[in-house]
């Protein structure tokens, strides 16, 4: 092993801790296949150490005033602003997405931290004076204890920000397991949070694979687990955590549709659809992976294909690139195998992104924009989340037909419609059975002070990240019923308050 390749450490108790694990994995630049770091698959002892530190820190942190916690987040958001370019470079080096896209990711994470700066007005209880005969009733919104987060590779900064800023602002302590594919930006993000003033042990990072994830789900001192990633892993995480009696939320896979009505602004609709389908090489759980062209808008499909053909594919450090490589050779192989499956099943391959070579980056995991026409609900390319720059095109005669088709899909992460007809938009938002709806917005992820509300097969658990639901997820409500009386009273054996 070259001494020039950095070995990532855990972050435990406010310190970088070298792992004793014998199992390490290469972190690879997806554009070059260069090994840029080595990440440990942590041991159970290291996980236990992190949880123990978090538990010890909780005793003090939970009693730290809201104002003090808020001031940490205020400092943290400034450090995020100051280090946006550095974080973006880390993301691009290990994930592959373009630098502008990586900077945008940091910006969406920053939005959540800014929301956490309002914790003093978010973590509020209710109070009813003299609710019944001199009895006051009020609620206390209190932290849970040690909490945990498990994140996917596709947003190594934004996804952790969907978890720990609100959790620790509510008075919890936290153990985070980032993706082993691109962990450097996540570790640096946590170090910035400590620099902002989080006390040692409040935020910990333990690297690893399934053993660490399962350990967090089953550890008796962990009270809640948040997961964002694939449906297969998320279902297992939710089962393990729930069986262990923990609160759990799992944001999982998707098949997001974008409906194009013939009255839509053609330029706006096509350009936004291209960006939503192929940005980040399609490696977004909110990517628009299915386009439904309704009525005469079907005539726009050839124009869409030609516009997609002109997108520039290159290494993410090229700021003029529209999309970079997939995260790994395995991801490229899977995407290309699904493209082949689509051909075999009879879909019309209108644009084929396979066999793409980028000069100077011949070893990169590149797949260009790919468009399938004539896709049906029974095809594998429609049923599976491809997680690559592949768009399935479906045609419908009417909006009602499009809505019925989308509602037949088991996933419910996001959906969009492009139209200039307010009545059509209202019909769509009321009748579509998907948790997040965009109207002339292709990727309907709301601002951070609204909750992420994916639904059906895309989500397990009642509460999602961000907004009011995040505060509810990371806290427990305690109701106090109190009477202060100067004089005693007689025996009352009824349940009625007087």
Compact summary:
With 498 residues, the chain is α/β, with parallel strands linked by helices.
Query: In terms of structural class, how would the helical and strand content be classed?
Result: alpha/beta
Biggest pleated sheet = 7 strands, mixed
CATH class category label of the largest domain = Alpha Beta
- Give the tally of structural domains: 2
Number of strands: 22
Note the overall shape: globular
Percentage of residues assigned to helices = 25-40%
The order of strands across the largest sheet is 14-15-16-13-12-18-19
CATH architecture term of the largest domain = 3-Layer(aba) Sandwich
Number of helices: 17
Percentage beta strand? 15-25%
Radius of gyration: 24 Å
CATH topology of the largest domain: Aldehyde Dehydrogenase, Chain A, domain 1
Distance between the termini: 76 Å
According to CATH, the homologous superfamily of the largest domain is Aldehyde Dehydrogenase, Chain A, domain 1
GO molecular function, one term: methylmalonate-semialdehyde dehydrogenase (acylating, NAD) activity
Keywords: NAD, Oxidoreductase
Organism: Orrella dioscoreae
EC number: 1.2.1.27
